Amino acid sequence: FTTTLTLSLFGLVTDNLVGFVYCDDRLSKVKISFLDSKGKRQNRVYSVDDLVSRTELPKSFLKLYFPVKNHENGDVYKLVHQIACTIVQRHTASQCIVPAARMSQYGPHFIEPIVNKEKIDDLQKTGDLTKIAHVPIKAALSNQNCSVFYDPLVAQFTNYVMKQGNKQLARGLVEKGFENIKRLQLERYHLAETEEEKAKIELNPRKLLQQAVENCRPLLQLTPIKRGGVRYQVPVPITEKRSYFLAMKWMLEAVREKERTVHFPEKMAWEILDAAANQGKVVKRKHELHRQCEANRAYAHYRWS
Fold first, then answer.
1. Do the Cβ atoms of 218 and 290 come closer than 8 Å?
2. Range of the domain at 173
3. Residues in contact with 220: Cβ distance below 8 Å, sequence separation at least 6, in sequence order
4. pLDDT tens digit string along 114-141?
């Protein structure tokens, strides 16, 4: 905010201009220049911590106008406070007031787009869709769509497979792995003798990937906490987002640790099928982590201390 903007705002709301306000580039300090009772120019610099509570002003004015707190000259404090109150009352009529800077091009009243058709149907059934019909919505990302073939878990898994931004190669590897899973499951399906055995065989590779990730998700993790000069491995619960990340990360690490003579899609298919059946290296790694957390449960109280 420039000095010209600040002075023009003061000219809009005051008839007698006796003080000036200057804001630095980072808007962390406010300088007030005014005339004292003897007619001498006085300058005061205040930081944000010395100002009145920000809840008294709208969010768009938080970084623009600050009523001064505990000022030496009570008249100057009243003047600046009156100016701030006047701006609040006339903020709809003022044309040159600039909102606080944001890192996003969307305002805080924009909501995230809903691309899943199932969620949209649920909102229609509950009647919540009409409540957000007038609310502006952010633009959907380029990889988000409402197609029946779109799966957010598969898209996230593809991003973890990707290296050096080569997403076309990663998508091809994942699709080739799904094709191998389909072939293996169809072979098992045709070798099954009874209808009950055939009904237990899942042929959809996307559902198998979701089941594999769910079987590999850890519930706890060990966090080092220092107490009395000693570091203790304290078991703490893990967030849902972190658990999904660790499950897919462990699966890819297990795939890449296999023999290099076998192609990646084949190794990925084997690992997903093993994890979907609650077997394999990743499931053992999860159980080992849970055993360590169980062994260190005596240190769990260090989490709050």
1. yes
2. 152-302
3. 235, 236, 237, 238, 289, 290, 293
4. 888 888 899 999 988 888 888 899 998 8
